[in-house]
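EI: anyone free to look at a 241-residue chain?
SC: sure, send it
EI:
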Amino acid sequence: MFRRSIQSFMPRRLYHFKTLSTPNPNALKFISEECPILPMEDKTMEFSTAFQAMHSPLALMLFKIPGVNSVMLGHDFLTVNKQEYMPWASLKPEIVEHLDEFLTSKKQPVITKELVDKANEEDELADTELMSMIKELIETRIRPAIQDDGGDIELKGFDEETGTVFVKLQGACKSCSASEDTLKSGIESMLMHYIEEVKEVVQILDPEEEIAMKEFERLEHKLKNNSSQQSSHEDQAPPSL
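SC: here you go
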């Protein structure tokens, strides 16, 4: 009884997280210096909606914070994408507090066993020789640089007939304004340089991301039309009396 009462008054250990900015102003990288986050060293997992985060209690908890747009988990870091209107000054302390509370309590796993098993099954799928070469190049030359910026890249497939490599950008790189340059000038150029069979690299989007992208393009087109119409009206001479 006495021992239990002492333990109840012992201060809770706090983990420390270092935050790093990324090329994307709406994404921040949180680095854990004391404890692993994802239980797999060579994997990252991204969740763009709370529904996708059903098998990650940690990501699901972060989605409850107003302003959190997506969460990517890595072995010793995580990247949070926020809504543009939400300032980091108010969002960052809340994220760190939730992270510390979740990881120190150890009441729930970061990801469920079902998700771990699914990831392991995907790793066991046999690759063609070309696919293995592409995967090795991405893992050794491309992925480390992207992870340094709080993002990640996932190889989704390779069409040997057309020479098209399909990838999925994650974390900070997914919604960064420079993502197209990263895809074409960086990833595509390197793969084409080392593997002559590669002719193109195409980014795969989730259904939710495709809808958001089409909506953004529609709004951008509408704004441009309104702007051009306004300019044409201003250029017209005023009617004479």
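EI: The radius of gyration is 23 Å.
SC: 👍
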